[in-house]
Amino acid sequence: MAELRMDQLPTDPLLHVLSYLSYRDLSRCSVVSRRLNELSKHNPLWKSLCCKDWLLTCAERQKSGLSWYLLFRQYYSDLGRYIQFYPVLKRCWEQMKSFLQQRCPRMITSLKEGATEAELNDIEALIGCRLPDDYRCSYRIHNGQILVIPGLMGSMSLSNHYRSEVLLDVETAAGGFQQRKGMRGCLPLTFCFHTGLSQYMALQPAEGRCCFESFYPCPDQMAQDPSAIDMFITGSCFLDWFTTYVQNVVNGEFPIIRDQIFRYVHDKSSVATTGDITVSVSTSFLPELSSVHPPHFFFTYRIRIEMSSSALPEAACQLDSRYWKITTSDGNVEEVQGPGVVGEFPVMTPGKVHEYASCTTFSTPWEYMEGHYTFHSLANKEEVFQVAIPRFHMVCPPFREPPAPTKTLTAHLDHDDGDDGGDCCDGDGGSDNDFGSVRGINMAGLEGAWCPRHI
């Protein structure tokens, strides 16, 4: 039987086979034979790769005046080291900008153009550490924000407390790079003008931290050494940290209040309807008001009370009092009742919505609350009824303690209620490479005094 040479094979089946190959495999095919070299430059093959790896459109290709093959090569020569991260991060940025354009348009103007490769290299030389590729890739797309309020990375507001976190540009972040004991090798990701709060990314596995994880630092208030820093962990790497946040924003998990992204988390099970009234709850953990030592975990919760628009006019009513049953992770149960909600006695009529925020502290890392409101009918004040408040959980993010031994946890004071991958950096970690223990979620057996408070 005569051998079938490559140049005798029909074109269409070969192109079909080539369409399953990655850009690296297509490049290898070009040196196998003249026939494959010609076919490997077939424009439709590279169109598919340009759309998949660089999210390019036909309009962008036409504007460039290049073939799909040459356009791919152009992007690869500039961004090739980030090809595993670029489509994910580029899509996240586009989704975020589309959302902001509709819901928070003034925030769009605060985004900075992407940094160049040379600028990122200069930052690495300045701080003496290598930036992870997922971080570099994101900053090639957008170099953070200008220093304005509101911040892209979320806000929170109570009666006497406000936080809004700006996504720092890489130059400002480098200026805040930490080399002091307790925070060695940590690069700030965000900053809040009002509280001084920052989230950091660890650029080396030192002092109980894992390389590239993001966290809020939390000084150990019970240690004699001021460099003893606990950590509330917010992400395992930059890609995890940023994409998780963006997906929560664009999927509507966070409410938009006064053109700002408020980082309340809503559990879809935390909704209860009694007659014509629906109550739903969302919660948020405030790291800047919390500590691990002593155990003092601060939460705010936002409650929405809504009367159905289809309710009859005679269903109008007024809230008189609230009742809470509070269960902590160490098994303590407390019952609290009092007049109104945050000093108000809202009147509910068909279609009306009343929202309010309050806060509480605990000495255990998670707990749940549930209860009911007592209303009276406006048509007949003698007619009193209860409206269920659904159970909602408040869970502290995982936290890590430094490897060194720490003192025994003790009780804290009470609180009154109120209104709302890549390589590591250079350097020898030494014994600091021992990671501290991660805690915070499965800690029902935590030994610690119960923290009394008023709700």
- How far apart are the first and last residues' alpha carbons, in Å? 89 Å
Instruction: Please provide the count of β strands.
Output: 23
Estimate percent helicity.
Answer: 10-25%
Strand content: 25-35%
Note down, in words, how this protein is organized.
- This protein is of the alpha+beta class and 455 residues long.
- The chain is built from 12 helices and 23 strands.
- The protein has helices at residues 11-18, 23-29, 34-39, 43-53, 58-64, 68-79, 86-103, 105-108, 117-127, 133-141, 170-175, 238-250, and strands at 111-113, 142-145, 155-158, 161-164, 166-167, 186-188, 190-191, 200-202, 214-219, 229-235, 256-257, 260-261, 265-274, 277-285, 297-307, 317-328, 333-339, 347-348, 353-362, 366-377, 384-395, 399-400, 438-439.
- The protein has a 6-stranded antiparallel β-sheet with strand order 6-8-9-10-22-23.
- A hairpin with a 2-residue loop joins strand 3 (155-158) and strand 4 (161-164).
- Helix 4 runs parallel beside helix 6 (68-79) and helix 7 packs across helix 10.
- The longest helix has 18 residues, at 86-103.
- The radius of gyration is 28 Å and the shape is globular.
- It starts with 10 loop residues before the first helix and ends in a 16-residue tail after the last strand.
- The model is unreliable at 406-423 and 425-455 (pLDDT under 50).
Helix-strand layout with pairing:
Blueprint: H1 11-18, H2 23-29, H3 34-39, H4 43-53, H5 58-64, H6 68-79, H7 86-103, H8 105-108, E1 111-113, H9 117-127, H10 133-141, E2 142-145, E3 155-158, E4 161-164, E5 166-167, H11 170-175, E6 186-188, E7 190-191, E8 200-202, E9 214-219, E10 229-235, H12 238-250, E11 256-257, E12 260-261, E13 265-274, E14 277-285, E15 297-307, E16 317-328, E17 333-339, E18 347-348, E19 353-362, E20 366-377, E21 384-395, E22 399-400, E23 438-439
Helix pairs in contact: 4-6, 7-10, 7-12
